[in-house]
Amino acid sequence: MLYYFVIGLCIILLVAVIYISAKPISMGIEARRNIKENSNNEELDINGEKSISENDKNLKIKDISISDELIKLNKLKEQGILSADEYERAKKKLIS
Questions:
Q1: How far apart are CA 59 and CA 16, in angstroms?
Q2: What is the sign, positive or negative, of the torsion defined by CA atoms of 17, 18, 21, 23?
Q3: Which residues contact 87 (CB under 8 A, 6 or more apart)?
Q4: Which 8-state DSSP code applies to residue 3?
Q5: Given 3-state DSSP classes, what are the helix, strand and coil percentages for the chain, each rounded to the nearest 5?
Q6: pLDDT surpasses 60 at 16
Q7: DSSP 8-state assignment for residue 50
């Protein structure tokens, strides 16, 4: 009889501990998700300042590559490889 009482008491204590700890555990999981999302969106550089987000990096890379392509097109035009019409068409295609 004492054996069943001890097992029952242990089960009740186990359920009580799970019930009490469920909310803090869920809050910790939610906080970890928020930290992960924030770190993906805003990376800090060495000085602790906000660095450029991924979207801004992609836009800058795109802008740099477009400007590089325009420079290359201008060099080809200056070398006489491209005519003025071909240059203008290629430039419009890059910009749009």
A1: 53
A2: negative
A3: 73, 74, 76, 77
A4: H
A5: 80, 0, 15
A6: yes
A7: B
User: What integer pLDDT is reported at residue 63 of this predicted model?
Assistant: 60
How far is 21 from 41, CA to CA, in rounded Å?
31
Residue 92 exposure: Cα atoms within 13 Å on the Cβ side: 6
- Summarize pLDDT for 24-73 with one digit per residue, the tens: 888 888 888 888 777 665 555 455 555 555 556 555 666 667 888 888 88
Give me the residue spans of the domains in the chain. Answer: 1-41, 52-96
Nearest alpha-carbon partner for 39 in 27, 24, 54: 54
